C-alpha cells in the first residue's frame, strides 16, 4: 500500500449508488460531510435519504444534510433522529438536531463508527430484493396465489398476494409513496401472520374473506430512492380518479383488479413525516357516504386504539367536510366506488410520542407488530364489514 492509498483509505467517503440510495455529496472536510437530498425524478419532492459512510472504526462523524427547508415536509425534521445501522439488520437512531437557519435548513447527524462503515437512512429501508424474498416466501405458502397485476413504468411487476377462502373482498396496499418504507415492514408483519397456520385471528379472517395484498405499489420509486412519486414523477395517491397507462399503470392495474373482485374493506398503508403518532384517516367527505359505512370505520379505529398503545385517535389529519373528499386519493375513491370501509393508516417517521423509544424510535419491529394488531382488530369485527 502506498502512502497515497493509505491516506485515501483513512478518509471519510460517502456513496448512495445502491437500491433506494439517495444523497448528494456537496463536500467533505475531514470527518465532516456536507450533503443534500436529490429530488424525485421529474418532481420537486425530496425528503428520503439513504447512504453509506465509510471511515475507520472509532471515527466521530458529523453529517450535515442541508437545504431541508425546501423539502416536501420541513416539519419532519424537528425532533427527528436519522436511522443508522452497521449490520443492516438493526436500525437505531443517531443523535440529530435541526437548525432551520443553517444552510437553508440543516439536519446535523453525529455518529461514532463502531466498525468501518455505517448506513444512514430516513427510515429503515425495505429493499426491492427483500420485496422479492417476501413475495416468494408468502407465495410458496399453502393457499396463497402470487399474481402480477401489471407492470410499473420501468417494467417492474406489481405483485399481489391473494389468500383466504371466504367471500368478503379485503384489500391492503402499501408504498404508493415509496419513501414510506415502514409501510412494507407493516406488510411483512401482515403476511407473516396471515401465513401462520397457528394464528387464530388469521384463520378467522381467511375463512371469512378473500384477502388481496399489494406490498409495494411503487417499486420504481422505491429503488430510485424517491420520497413520493413513480419513475415519471407522478404521485400515485393522486391518480385514483383516473389512472392511466401513461402516467400511473401501477394504480390502473390494481384498480382494474379491484373492479373484478369488489372491495368491502381497504387499508392503504403510509408513513407521515411530521406527526409523531400512528393514526387513521377516513373518507368522511365522499358524496355517497352511508351511516353504516362511516360507523364501521369509526368502530374499527376505536377498537384498534383499545387494542394497542401504539395507536391513538388524538393526533391526525382534519376530516374532509361533507362533499369535499379528494377522490383522486385511494381511500376516498375506494369508499366512493365500492362503498368500502376504506382507510389510510399513517405511521410516524419520528416516534410514537406517547410511547417513545429513544434507541429506535418508530421501527420495523413496531410496524410489523402494528400490522398484527390491525389484522386481529379486523378479525374481531369482520362480520360487520
Ligand atoms: Zn404517504
Automatic annotation (TrEMBL):
GO molecular function, one term: zinc ion binding
Gene3D superfamilies: 2.60.40.3120, Zn peptidases (3.40.630.10)
A biological process from GO: proteolysis
Alphabetical UniProt keywords: Carboxypeptidase, Hydrolase, Protease
PROSITE patterns reported in the protein's UniProt record: PEPTIDASE_M14 (PS52035)
Active site, per annotation: 346 (proton donor/acceptor)
Pfam families reported in the protein's UniProt record: Pepdidase_M14_N, Peptidase_M14
Keyword GTP-binding: no
Domain Peptidase M14: 124-382
Domain of life of the organism encoding this protein: Bacteria
Record family assignment: Belongs to the peptidase M14 family.
Protein name: Carboxypeptidase family protein
Record lineage: Bacteria, Pseudomonadati, Pseudomonadota, Alphaproteobacteria, Sphingomonadales
Amino acid at each position: 500500500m502506498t502512502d497515497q492509498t493509505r491516506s485515501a483509505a483513512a478518509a471519510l467517503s460517502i456513496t448512495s449508488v445502491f437500491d433506494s440510495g439517495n444523497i448528494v455529496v456537496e463536500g467533505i472536510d475531514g470527518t465532516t460531510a456536507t450533503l443534500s437530498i436529490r429530488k424525485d425524478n421529474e418532481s420537486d419532492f425530496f425528503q428520503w435519504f439513504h447512504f453509506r459512510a465509510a471511515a475507520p472504526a472509532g471515527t466521530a462523524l458529523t453529517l450535515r444534510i442541508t437545504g431541508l427547508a425546501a423539502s416536501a415536509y420541513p416539519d419532519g425534521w424537528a425532533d427527528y433522529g436519522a436511522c443508522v445501522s452497521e449490520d443492516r439488520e438493526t436500525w437505531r437512531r443517531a443523535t440529530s438536531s435541526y437548525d432551520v437557519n443553517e444552510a437553508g435548513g440543516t439536519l446535523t447527524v453525529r455518529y461514532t463508527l463502531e466498525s468501518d462503515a455505517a448506513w444512514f437512512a430516513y427510515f429503515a429501508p425495505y429493499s426491492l430484493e427483500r420485496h422479492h424474498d417476501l413475495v416468494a416466501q408468502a407465495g410458496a405458502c399453502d393457499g396463497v396465489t402470487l399474481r402480477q397485476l401489471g407492470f410499473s413504468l420501468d417494467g417492474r411487476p406489481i405483485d399481489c398476494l391473494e389468500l383466504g377462502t371466504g367471500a368478503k373482498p379485503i384489500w391492503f396496499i402499501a408504498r404508493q409513496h415509496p419513501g414510506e418504507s415502514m409501510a412494507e415492514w407493516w406488510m411483512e408483519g401482515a403476511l407473516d401472520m396471515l401465513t401462520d397456520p397457528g394464528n387464530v385471528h388469521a384463520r378467522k379472517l381467511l375463512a371469512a374473506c378473500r384477502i388481496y395484498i399489494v406490498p409495494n405499489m411503487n417499486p420504481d420509486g422505491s429503488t430510485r430512492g424517491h420520497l413520493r412519486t413513480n419513475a415519471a414523477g407522478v404521485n400515485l395517491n393522486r391518480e385514483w380518479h383516473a389512472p392511466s397507462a401513461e402516467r400511473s399503470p401501477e394504480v390502473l392495474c390494481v384498480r382494474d383488479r379491484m373492479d373484478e373482485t369488489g372491495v368491502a374493506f381497504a387499508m392503504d398503508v403510509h408513513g407521515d413525516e411530521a406527526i409523531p403518532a400512528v393514526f387513521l384517516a377516513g373518507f368522511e367527505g365522499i358524496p355517497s357516504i352511508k351511516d353504516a359505512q362511516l360507523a364501521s370505520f369509526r368502530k374499527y379505529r376505536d377498537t384498534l386504539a383499545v387494542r394497542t398503545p401504539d395507536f391513538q385517535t388524538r393526533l391526525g389529519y382534519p376530516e374532509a367536510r361533507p362533499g369535499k373528499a379528494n377522490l383522486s386519493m385511494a381511500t376516498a375513491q375506494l369508499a366512493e366506488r365500492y362503498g368500502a370501509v376504506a382507510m389510510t393508516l399513517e405511521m410516524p417517521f419520528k416516534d410514537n410520542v406517547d410511547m417513545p423509544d429513544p434507541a429506535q424510535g418508530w421501527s420495523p419491529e413496531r410496524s410489523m407488530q402494528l400490522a398484527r394488531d390491525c389484522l386481529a382488530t379486523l378479525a374481531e369485527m369482520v362480520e360487520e364489514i
